[in-house]
Design goal:
heterodimer, A: mainly alpha, 7 helices, 76% helix, globular, disordered C terminus, B: 286 residues, Thrombin, subunit H, 2 domains, 6-stranded antiparallel barrel, 26% strand
Chain lengths: 176, 286
Protein backbone atom coordinates (compact mmCIF):
# COMPACT_ATOMS: atom_id res chain seq x y z
CA UNK A 1 0.00 0.00 0.00
CA UNK A 2 1.32 3.40 -0.91
CA UNK A 3 0.39 6.70 0.63
CA UNK A 4 2.02 9.95 -0.31
CA UNK A 5 2.98 12.27 2.52
CA UNK A 6 0.50 14.84 1.23
CA UNK A 7 -2.35 12.30 1.32
CA UNK A 8 -1.52 11.36 4.89
CA UNK A 9 -1.37 15.00 5.97
CA UNK A 10 -4.68 15.85 4.26
CA UNK A 11 -6.39 12.74 5.64
CA UNK A 12 -5.07 13.54 9.09
CA UNK A 13 -6.16 17.19 9.00
CA UNK A 14 -9.68 16.34 7.79
CA UNK A 15 -10.11 13.64 10.43
CA UNK A 16 -8.62 15.86 13.17
CA UNK A 17 -11.05 18.64 12.27
CA UNK A 18 -13.95 16.17 12.39
CA UNK A 19 -12.76 14.88 15.77
CA UNK A 20 -12.53 18.43 17.19
CA UNK A 21 -16.06 19.27 15.99
CA UNK A 22 -17.44 16.05 17.49
CA UNK A 23 -15.57 16.55 20.78
CA UNK A 24 -17.08 20.05 21.05
CA UNK A 25 -20.47 18.48 20.31
CA UNK A 26 -20.01 15.98 23.18
CA UNK A 27 -18.44 18.34 25.70
CA UNK A 28 -20.33 21.61 25.12
CA UNK A 29 -23.37 21.30 22.85
CA UNK A 30 -24.96 18.22 24.45
CA UNK A 31 -24.52 19.55 28.04
CA UNK A 32 -25.91 22.96 27.03
CA UNK A 33 -29.13 21.16 26.00
CA UNK A 34 -29.23 19.41 29.38
CA UNK A 35 -27.86 16.10 28.08
CA UNK A 36 -24.96 15.64 30.47
CA UNK A 37 -24.99 11.87 30.97
CA UNK A 38 -24.65 10.87 27.33
CA UNK A 39 -21.31 11.61 25.72
CA UNK A 40 -20.43 9.39 22.78
CA UNK A 41 -16.67 8.76 22.51
CA UNK A 42 -16.11 9.64 18.86
CA UNK A 43 -12.34 9.26 19.27
CA UNK A 44 -12.91 5.51 19.74
CA UNK A 45 -14.81 5.32 16.46
CA UNK A 46 -12.01 7.13 14.62
CA UNK A 47 -9.29 4.92 16.11
CA UNK A 48 -11.32 1.79 15.27
CA UNK A 49 -11.69 2.97 11.68
CA UNK A 50 -7.94 3.46 11.41
CA UNK A 51 -7.28 0.05 12.95
CA UNK A 52 -9.79 -1.68 10.64
CA UNK A 53 -9.02 0.01 7.36
CA UNK A 54 -5.57 1.59 7.45
CA UNK A 55 -3.06 -1.22 7.56
CA UNK A 56 -0.14 1.21 7.33
CA UNK A 57 3.20 1.37 9.16
CA UNK A 58 2.48 4.91 10.42
CA UNK A 59 -0.83 3.80 12.02
CA UNK A 60 0.45 3.85 15.66
CA UNK A 61 1.54 7.49 15.25
CA UNK A 62 -1.88 8.43 13.87
CA UNK A 63 -3.59 6.76 16.83
CA UNK A 64 -1.26 8.64 19.17
CA UNK A 65 -2.01 11.96 17.44
CA UNK A 66 -5.80 11.54 17.57
CA UNK A 67 -5.69 10.46 21.20
CA UNK A 68 -3.56 13.51 21.97
CA UNK A 69 -6.21 15.75 20.42
CA UNK A 70 -8.84 13.92 22.49
CA UNK A 71 -6.83 14.60 25.66
CA UNK A 72 -7.45 18.34 25.16
CA UNK A 73 -11.12 17.70 25.83
CA UNK A 74 -10.84 14.96 28.44
CA UNK A 75 -8.67 14.20 31.43
CA UNK A 76 -8.63 10.59 30.22
CA UNK A 77 -5.33 11.57 28.59
CA UNK A 78 -3.72 10.13 25.48
CA UNK A 79 -1.83 7.16 26.89
CA UNK A 80 -4.45 4.54 27.78
CA UNK A 81 -6.41 5.10 24.54
CA UNK A 82 -3.23 4.90 22.47
CA UNK A 83 -2.25 1.64 24.15
CA UNK A 84 -5.73 0.18 23.64
CA UNK A 85 -5.78 1.40 20.02
CA UNK A 86 -2.44 -0.26 19.24
CA UNK A 87 -3.50 -3.56 20.84
CA UNK A 88 -6.73 -3.50 18.82
CA UNK A 89 -4.87 -2.61 15.60
CA UNK A 90 -2.49 -5.54 16.15
CA UNK A 91 -5.34 -7.95 16.93
CA UNK A 92 -7.33 -6.75 13.88
CA UNK A 93 -4.42 -7.82 11.68
CA UNK A 94 -5.01 -11.44 12.69
CA UNK A 95 -8.79 -11.41 12.22
CA UNK A 96 -9.02 -9.07 9.24
CA UNK A 97 -10.18 -11.82 6.87
CA UNK A 98 -13.18 -12.46 9.10
CA UNK A 99 -14.24 -8.81 9.29
CA UNK A 100 -16.78 -7.50 6.87
CA UNK A 101 -17.77 -3.87 6.44
CA UNK A 102 -19.84 -4.22 3.29
CA UNK A 103 -23.20 -4.09 5.07
CA UNK A 104 -24.49 -1.87 7.84
CA UNK A 105 -25.39 -4.74 10.15
CA UNK A 106 -21.95 -6.41 9.94
CA UNK A 107 -20.25 -3.04 10.55
CA UNK A 108 -22.48 -2.40 13.58
CA UNK A 109 -21.68 -5.82 15.10
CA UNK A 110 -17.91 -5.59 14.50
CA UNK A 111 -17.73 -2.04 15.86
CA UNK A 112 -19.77 -2.99 18.94
CA UNK A 113 -17.50 -5.97 19.71
CA UNK A 114 -14.33 -3.90 19.39
CA UNK A 115 -15.83 -1.02 21.39
CA UNK A 116 -16.42 -3.43 24.26
CA UNK A 117 -12.81 -4.62 23.94
CA UNK A 118 -11.72 -0.97 24.03
CA UNK A 119 -13.82 -0.32 27.14
CA UNK A 120 -12.38 -3.31 29.01
CA UNK A 121 -8.81 -2.32 28.13
CA UNK A 122 -9.10 1.38 29.01
CA UNK A 123 -11.26 0.89 32.12
CA UNK A 124 -8.99 -1.87 33.39
CA UNK A 125 -5.98 0.43 33.02
CA UNK A 126 -7.84 3.20 34.90
CA UNK A 127 -9.02 0.82 37.62
CA UNK A 128 -5.51 -0.63 38.04
CA UNK A 129 -4.14 2.90 38.34
CA UNK A 130 -6.77 3.75 40.97
CA UNK A 131 -6.44 0.37 42.68
CA UNK A 132 -10.23 0.14 42.74
CA UNK A 133 -12.51 -1.95 40.51
CA UNK A 134 -15.73 -1.18 42.43
CA UNK A 135 -17.07 1.27 39.82
CA UNK A 136 -16.31 -0.96 36.85
CA UNK A 137 -19.85 -2.32 36.44
CA UNK A 138 -21.52 1.09 36.92
CA UNK A 139 -19.30 2.69 34.31
CA UNK A 140 -19.84 -0.27 31.97
CA UNK A 141 -23.64 0.08 32.21
CA UNK A 142 -23.31 3.77 31.44
CA UNK A 143 -21.06 2.99 28.47
CA UNK A 144 -23.52 0.56 26.82
CA UNK A 145 -26.03 3.10 25.38
CA UNK A 146 -23.21 5.33 24.13
CA UNK A 147 -21.45 2.41 22.45
CA UNK A 148 -24.70 1.23 20.82
CA UNK A 149 -25.27 4.72 19.47
CA UNK A 150 -21.74 4.81 18.05
CA UNK A 151 -22.18 1.34 16.52
CA UNK A 152 -25.44 2.40 14.87
CA UNK A 153 -23.84 5.40 13.19
CA UNK A 154 -20.58 3.59 12.41
CA UNK A 155 -21.54 2.45 8.90
CA UNK A 156 -22.15 6.00 7.64
CA UNK A 157 -19.36 7.42 9.79
CA UNK A 158 -16.90 4.98 8.22
CA UNK A 159 -18.14 5.96 4.75
CA UNK A 160 -17.22 9.56 5.54
CA UNK A 161 -13.79 8.49 6.80
CA UNK A 162 -13.38 6.25 3.73
CA UNK A 163 -13.82 9.43 1.72
CA UNK A 164 -11.26 11.33 3.82
CA UNK A 165 -8.68 8.56 3.50
CA UNK A 166 -9.67 7.51 -0.04
CA UNK A 167 -10.00 3.93 1.13
CA UNK A 168 -12.41 2.66 -1.53
CA UNK A 169 -10.15 3.90 -4.29
CA UNK A 170 -7.32 1.76 -2.99
CA UNK A 171 -8.95 -1.16 -1.29
CA UNK A 172 -9.25 -4.63 -2.66
CA UNK A 173 -11.83 -6.09 -0.35
CA UNK A 174 -11.45 -5.18 3.29
CA UNK A 175 -7.84 -4.21 3.85
CA UNK A 176 -5.86 -1.67 1.94
CA UNK B 1 5.82 13.37 -4.08
CA UNK B 2 7.73 10.83 -2.05
CA UNK B 3 5.66 7.79 -1.16
CA UNK B 4 5.55 6.52 2.40
CA UNK B 5 6.29 3.09 1.08
CA UNK B 6 7.81 1.28 4.06
CA UNK B 7 5.32 -1.53 3.79
CA UNK B 8 7.39 -4.13 5.55
CA UNK B 9 6.03 -5.92 8.58
CA UNK B 10 9.27 -5.00 10.38
CA UNK B 11 8.42 -1.31 10.20
CA UNK B 12 4.90 -1.98 11.46
CA UNK B 13 6.18 -4.09 14.33
CA UNK B 14 8.87 -1.55 15.25
CA UNK B 15 6.40 1.37 15.20
CA UNK B 16 3.85 -0.56 17.23
CA UNK B 17 6.47 -1.46 19.84
CA UNK B 18 7.82 2.09 19.98
CA UNK B 19 4.45 3.80 20.38
CA UNK B 20 3.22 0.99 22.65
CA UNK B 21 6.15 1.46 25.04
CA UNK B 22 5.72 5.22 24.88
CA UNK B 23 2.01 4.91 25.77
CA UNK B 24 2.83 2.52 28.62
CA UNK B 25 5.28 5.14 29.91
CA UNK B 26 2.49 7.71 29.53
CA UNK B 27 0.12 5.51 31.54
CA UNK B 28 2.75 5.04 34.24
CA UNK B 29 3.37 8.77 34.69
CA UNK B 30 -0.24 9.88 34.28
CA UNK B 31 -1.61 11.37 37.46
CA UNK B 32 -5.39 11.46 37.77
CA UNK B 33 -5.22 13.82 40.76
CA UNK B 34 -3.48 16.74 39.15
CA UNK B 35 -2.05 17.30 35.69
CA UNK B 36 0.74 19.49 34.41
CA UNK B 37 -0.53 20.80 31.09
CA UNK B 38 1.95 20.69 28.20
CA UNK B 39 2.50 23.82 26.08
CA UNK B 40 0.79 22.20 23.09
CA UNK B 41 -2.24 21.24 25.18
CA UNK B 42 -2.37 24.75 26.67
CA UNK B 43 -2.36 26.15 23.14
CA UNK B 44 -5.12 23.75 22.04
CA UNK B 45 -7.25 24.57 25.12
CA UNK B 46 -6.82 28.32 24.60
CA UNK B 47 -7.75 27.96 20.91
CA UNK B 48 -10.67 25.56 21.20
CA UNK B 49 -12.41 26.50 24.45
CA UNK B 50 -13.80 29.81 23.07
CA UNK B 51 -15.63 27.67 20.48
CA UNK B 52 -17.04 25.47 23.26
CA UNK B 53 -18.06 28.66 25.07
CA UNK B 54 -19.71 30.02 21.92
CA UNK B 55 -22.01 27.04 21.54
CA UNK B 56 -24.18 28.27 24.42
CA UNK B 57 -25.01 31.54 22.66
CA UNK B 58 -25.67 29.62 19.42
CA UNK B 59 -28.17 27.47 21.32
CA UNK B 60 -29.91 30.58 22.67
CA UNK B 61 -30.12 32.04 19.17
CA UNK B 62 -31.54 28.81 17.75
CA UNK B 63 -34.22 28.69 20.43
CA UNK B 64 -34.94 32.39 19.94
CA UNK B 65 -35.42 31.88 16.19
CA UNK B 66 -37.75 28.93 16.69
CA UNK B 67 -39.75 30.60 19.44
CA UNK B 68 -40.16 34.04 17.95
CA UNK B 69 -39.93 33.93 14.20
CA UNK B 70 -40.93 30.60 12.70
CA UNK B 71 -44.56 30.88 13.86
CA UNK B 72 -45.24 34.34 12.45
CA UNK B 73 -44.18 33.87 8.85
CA UNK B 74 -47.72 34.10 7.44
CA UNK B 75 -49.11 37.05 9.43
CA UNK B 76 -49.72 40.50 7.96
CA UNK B 77 -46.97 43.09 7.64
CA UNK B 78 -48.47 45.25 10.34
CA UNK B 79 -48.66 42.30 12.62
CA UNK B 80 -45.05 41.54 11.89
CA UNK B 81 -43.97 45.06 12.81
CA UNK B 82 -46.04 45.07 15.98
CA UNK B 83 -45.01 41.60 17.01
CA UNK B 84 -41.43 42.45 16.21
CA UNK B 85 -41.49 45.41 18.54
CA UNK B 86 -43.23 43.33 21.22
CA UNK B 87 -40.65 40.59 20.80
CA UNK B 88 -37.84 43.14 21.03
CA UNK B 89 -39.32 44.62 24.18
CA UNK B 90 -39.93 41.19 25.67
CA UNK B 91 -36.42 40.19 24.74
CA UNK B 92 -35.10 43.33 26.41
CA UNK B 93 -37.10 42.59 29.54
CA UNK B 94 -35.94 38.99 29.44
CA UNK B 95 -32.32 40.10 29.08
CA UNK B 96 -32.70 42.57 31.94
CA UNK B 97 -34.35 39.96 34.11
CA UNK B 98 -31.58 37.51 33.22
CA UNK B 99 -28.96 40.14 34.13
CA UNK B 100 -30.79 40.83 37.39
CA UNK B 101 -30.95 37.11 38.22
CA UNK B 102 -27.28 36.70 37.30
CA UNK B 103 -26.40 39.71 39.49
CA UNK B 104 -28.30 38.24 42.42
CA UNK B 105 -26.62 34.86 41.91
CA UNK B 106 -23.14 36.37 41.65
CA UNK B 107 -23.73 38.65 44.62
CA UNK B 108 -24.84 35.79 46.83
CA UNK B 109 -21.95 33.68 45.53
CA UNK B 110 -19.45 36.37 46.47
CA UNK B 111 -21.05 36.99 49.82
CA UNK B 112 -21.09 33.29 50.52
CA UNK B 113 -18.24 31.98 52.59
CA UNK B 114 -16.97 35.28 53.96
CA UNK B 115 -15.49 33.40 56.86
CA UNK B 116 -13.22 31.44 54.50
CA UNK B 117 -9.93 33.34 54.61
CA UNK B 118 -9.16 33.09 50.91
CA UNK B 119 -9.58 35.21 47.80
CA UNK B 120 -12.53 34.24 45.66
CA UNK B 121 -12.47 34.20 41.88
CA UNK B 122 -15.80 33.94 40.13
CA UNK B 123 -15.90 31.75 37.01
CA UNK B 124 -18.43 30.43 34.53
CA UNK B 125 -18.75 26.82 33.47
CA UNK B 126 -17.84 26.48 29.80
CA UNK B 127 -18.08 22.74 29.08
CA UNK B 128 -17.83 19.22 30.48
CA UNK B 129 -15.27 16.49 29.86
CA UNK B 130 -16.00 14.73 26.56
CA UNK B 131 -15.70 11.28 28.19
CA UNK B 132 -18.64 10.24 30.32
CA UNK B 133 -16.30 8.26 32.56
CA UNK B 134 -14.76 11.47 33.91
CA UNK B 135 -16.77 14.15 35.68
CA UNK B 136 -14.67 17.18 34.87
CA UNK B 137 -15.86 20.63 33.93
CA UNK B 138 -14.04 23.50 32.27
CA UNK B 139 -14.30 27.10 33.55
CA UNK B 140 -13.37 30.42 31.93
CA UNK B 141 -10.67 31.45 34.41
CA UNK B 142 -7.05 30.30 34.39
CA UNK B 143 -3.59 30.96 35.73
CA UNK B 144 -3.72 34.62 34.63
CA UNK B 145 -6.61 35.13 37.07
CA UNK B 146 -4.63 33.70 39.96
CA UNK B 147 -5.79 30.10 39.83
CA UNK B 148 -3.33 27.40 40.77
CA UNK B 149 -3.52 23.64 40.52
CA UNK B 150 -5.43 22.05 43.42
CA UNK B 151 -7.33 25.29 44.23
CA UNK B 152 -10.71 24.31 45.74
CA UNK B 153 -13.86 25.18 43.81
CA UNK B 154 -17.22 25.81 45.51
CA UNK B 155 -20.65 27.31 45.01
CA UNK B 156 -22.99 28.77 47.63
CA UNK B 157 -24.62 25.35 47.97
CA UNK B 158 -21.43 23.40 48.56
CA UNK B 159 -18.27 21.80 47.26
CA UNK B 160 -17.67 21.36 43.52
CA UNK B 161 -14.11 20.02 43.34
CA UNK B 162 -10.60 21.32 42.70
CA UNK B 163 -8.49 22.64 39.82
CA UNK B 164 -7.00 19.67 37.99
CA UNK B 165 -5.23 21.35 35.07
CA UNK B 166 -4.68 24.90 33.95
CA UNK B 167 -4.04 27.04 30.93
CA UNK B 168 -3.74 30.85 30.88
CA UNK B 169 -7.48 31.55 30.62
CA UNK B 170 -9.18 28.22 31.37
CA UNK B 171 -9.10 25.53 34.03
CA UNK B 172 -10.40 21.97 34.29
CA UNK B 173 -12.14 21.13 37.58
CA UNK B 174 -12.09 17.57 38.88
CA UNK B 175 -15.52 17.46 40.52
CA UNK B 176 -16.45 15.42 43.59
CA UNK B 177 -18.52 13.22 41.22
CA UNK B 178 -15.32 11.86 39.65
CA UNK B 179 -13.95 8.59 40.96
CA UNK B 180 -10.42 10.10 40.96
CA UNK B 181 -11.41 12.77 43.48
CA UNK B 182 -11.29 11.82 47.16
CA UNK B 183 -12.43 14.24 49.84
CA UNK B 184 -11.72 13.75 53.53
CA UNK B 185 -15.04 14.44 55.19
CA UNK B 186 -17.05 14.42 58.42
CA UNK B 187 -20.67 13.54 59.16
CA UNK B 188 -21.89 16.64 61.01
CA UNK B 189 -24.21 14.90 63.51
CA UNK B 190 -21.87 12.10 64.62
CA UNK B 191 -18.46 13.63 63.70
CA UNK B 192 -17.64 10.38 61.89
CA UNK B 193 -14.74 10.57 59.44
CA UNK B 194 -14.89 9.08 55.96
CA UNK B 195 -13.72 9.59 52.37
CA UNK B 196 -16.13 10.91 49.76
CA UNK B 197 -15.55 9.51 46.28
CA UNK B 198 -17.46 9.75 43.00
CA UNK B 199 -19.23 6.60 41.83
CA UNK B 200 -20.63 7.18 38.37
CA UNK B 201 -23.44 9.37 37.29
CA UNK B 202 -24.28 12.22 39.62
CA UNK B 203 -23.92 10.66 43.08
CA UNK B 204 -21.00 10.02 45.45
CA UNK B 205 -20.19 7.44 48.09
CA UNK B 206 -18.83 7.79 51.62
CA UNK B 207 -16.18 5.15 52.15
CA UNK B 208 -14.34 3.66 55.11
CA UNK B 209 -17.12 4.24 57.68
CA UNK B 210 -17.25 1.48 60.28
CA UNK B 211 -20.40 -0.70 60.46
CA UNK B 212 -20.80 0.25 64.11
CA UNK B 213 -21.42 3.95 63.28
CA UNK B 214 -25.12 4.80 63.52
CA UNK B 215 -25.67 7.08 60.56
CA UNK B 216 -29.09 8.12 59.31
CA UNK B 217 -30.59 9.12 55.99
CA UNK B 218 -30.34 12.88 55.55
CA UNK B 219 -27.21 13.26 57.68
CA UNK B 220 -25.14 16.14 56.38
CA UNK B 221 -21.53 15.66 55.22
CA UNK B 222 -18.93 18.45 55.27
CA UNK B 223 -15.24 18.69 54.41
CA UNK B 224 -12.85 17.71 57.22
CA UNK B 225 -10.12 20.16 56.21
CA UNK B 226 -7.42 17.49 56.06
CA UNK B 227 -5.32 16.93 52.98
CA UNK B 228 -4.51 20.63 52.42
CA UNK B 229 -6.87 21.06 49.49
CA UNK B 230 -10.30 21.94 50.87
CA UNK B 231 -10.97 24.29 53.80
CA UNK B 232 -12.88 22.73 56.69
CA UNK B 233 -16.67 22.95 56.91
CA UNK B 234 -17.77 23.17 53.26
CA UNK B 235 -21.01 21.30 52.58
CA UNK B 236 -20.64 18.21 50.43
CA UNK B 237 -24.07 16.61 50.52
CA UNK B 238 -26.53 14.43 52.40
CA UNK B 239 -26.72 10.70 52.95
CA UNK B 240 -29.33 9.27 50.59
CA UNK B 241 -28.77 5.52 50.96
CA UNK B 242 -27.22 3.27 53.62
CA UNK B 243 -26.46 -0.36 52.86
CA UNK B 244 -25.22 -2.50 55.78
CA UNK B 245 -24.18 -5.97 54.67
CA UNK B 246 -23.99 -8.89 57.11
CA UNK B 247 -20.29 -9.14 56.38
CA UNK B 248 -17.36 -6.72 56.16
CA UNK B 249 -16.21 -3.99 58.49
CA UNK B 250 -17.55 -0.94 56.66
CA UNK B 251 -20.94 0.15 55.36
CA UNK B 252 -21.98 1.31 51.88
CA UNK B 253 -23.19 4.90 52.01
CA UNK B 254 -24.46 6.88 49.04
CA UNK B 255 -24.46 10.68 49.08
CA UNK B 256 -26.48 13.13 47.04
CA UNK B 257 -24.26 16.19 46.53
CA UNK B 258 -25.64 19.49 47.75
CA UNK B 259 -24.54 21.12 44.50
CA UNK B 260 -26.94 20.51 41.61
CA UNK B 261 -24.38 19.65 38.93
CA UNK B 262 -27.08 19.54 36.23
CA UNK B 263 -27.72 23.26 36.67
CA UNK B 264 -24.23 24.47 37.48
CA UNK B 265 -23.47 27.78 35.73
CA UNK B 266 -21.10 29.73 37.98
CA UNK B 267 -18.54 28.63 40.53
CA UNK B 268 -16.13 30.26 42.97
CA UNK B 269 -12.46 29.30 43.04
CA UNK B 270 -10.73 29.83 46.38
CA UNK B 271 -7.12 30.94 46.13
CA UNK B 272 -4.40 32.06 48.48
CA UNK B 273 -3.84 35.84 48.66
CA UNK B 274 -0.14 35.57 47.80
CA UNK B 275 -0.92 33.70 44.60
CA UNK B 276 -3.40 36.38 43.51
CA UNK B 277 -0.85 39.15 43.99
CA UNK B 278 1.71 37.19 41.99
CA UNK B 279 -0.65 36.52 39.09
CA UNK B 280 -1.86 40.12 38.87
CA UNK B 281 1.78 41.14 38.72
CA UNK B 282 2.32 38.69 35.85
CA UNK B 283 -0.76 39.99 34.01
CA UNK B 284 0.52 43.61 34.33
CA UNK B 285 3.88 42.59 32.91
CA UNK B 286 2.18 40.88 29.93
Amino acid sequence: MKYSLLEVVIGFLKTALLLIVLEIFSSAILPSFGIDEFKPAFNVLIVLFLAFKLDAPFLPFLILAFQYIHSTFSIEGWASGTFAGILIAVSVRYVRDMLNFSTAISTIIVVQVFQLAWFFLVSSILSIKLGDFSNFINIFLQYIPESIFLSLISFHFFKLLDFFWKVNKRSHGVSL
Amino acid sequence: MRNLNFDSSRWKLLNNIMVGIFSLYGIAIQNYNVDETSYFQKLMIEMLTPIQQGTTSIKEKVFYTFDHYVNIVNTSKENVVLKDSVVKLKNKIFTLEEVQRENERLKSLLEFGREIPRKKVLAQVVSWDSSNEFKVLRINKGSLHGLTEMSPVITMTGLVGYVYRLSDNYADILTILDQNNRVDSIVVRTRTHGIVEGISGFTCQLKYVSRTETLELGDEIITAGLGEIYPKGIKIGKISKIDKENFGITQKIEITPSVDFHKLEEVVVLIEDQVVAKSIDMKDKK
